[in-house]
Amino acid sequence: MVDNVYFFGTATTSINDDRDTSILSEFGWNLPPPPPPHSGTSAGLLHSGFDRIITDSDLAGNDTHTTLFARENENTTAEPQPMTMSSSSSDDLPEKSTASGGSSADRQPSDTASKAKKKGQKRIRQPRFAFMTKSEVDHLEDGYRWRKYGQKAVKNSPFPRSYYRCTNSKCTVKKRVERSSEDPTIVITTYEGQHCHHTVGFPRGGLISHEVPFGSQLTPSSSQFYYPGVQFPQGSVGIQESFNVSRESGHSHAPSDPSGRIFTDEGLLGDMVPPGMRKS
DNA sequence: CGGATTTGACCAGCGC
DNA sequence: GCGCTGGTCAAATCCG
């Protein structure tokens, strides 16, 4: 597996205006799919089960936004969850929709959500994001650390599907990575769940995890976007600057937030690193 | 040696 | 009920 890459050091995408963030918030997510570093040209695929896809035209004004993403359609929700998550029984793949395969999770002692489910109850799925990127690399770096826990051959596709879990033990986020059978150059990444932490891996292998109290700002109703190491106020134009970090330097360009405050290195550190963890 | 990956087996949902 | 399929587990293996 490729070493984790600090997202700010690899971003090639920028989001430029309020409209962009409104589009993201339209999806009800505070964790927009991170733009992969290996972006290319966009593809026009929309898998069944997803309600829409964001295209370059949706993000007019962006210079290099080439990733398309969509939230899985929730119309098929079996049991809406009381708080913030809604479930979905549809799949993001072209083939028939299934809600199978979740049973194994019930065996996980740590998975209390699954534990709660008993016979006769459908597995409650967290909302999912899929986005497609033209890339030669299967597993796109997104700033988080993932552990691969499975790989399966997919029907009607010559390419296997890989299953990843967030390495943070408290984080239940999963993602699936597969190549499009229609266009092998397109990587389809599906995220399920939302990170409960900031995880920032640095190019040299360092890792900083910034825990966030569950439920405090993880809900779609929250006004926070989540990205590795930084929180984006919804509608903030600061998102753009936060992305505009050169790959070469791996350092921040001292972006400013909407109020004009400059994000110095210390400011970023202050946001990401508990004071006790900092090295001078 | 510890963590990550591989891979075969297992399980449950769904369609017929 | 049976077979197919997707999703997950877990032991074996790999790797830094």
UniProtKB/TrEMBL annotation:
Q: Which Gene3D superfamilies match?
A: WRKY domain
Q: Where is this region: Disordered?
A: 71-130, 246-280
Q: What is its main location?
A: nucleus
Q: Does the keyword Transcription apply?
A: yes
Q: Which UniProt keywords apply?
A: DNA-binding, Nucleus, Transcription, Transcription regulation
Q: Which GO terms describe its molecular function?
A: DNA-binding transcription factor activity; sequence-specific DNA binding
Q: Which residues form a coiled coil?
A: none
Where do Basic residues bias regions lie? Answer: 115-126
Bias regions of kind Polar residues — which residues?
A: 75-85, 97-113
Q: Give all residue intervals belonging to the WRKY domain.
A: 135-200
GO cellular-component term (any): nucleus
UniProt name for this protein: WRKY domain-containing protein
Organism, by scientific name, is Coffea canephora
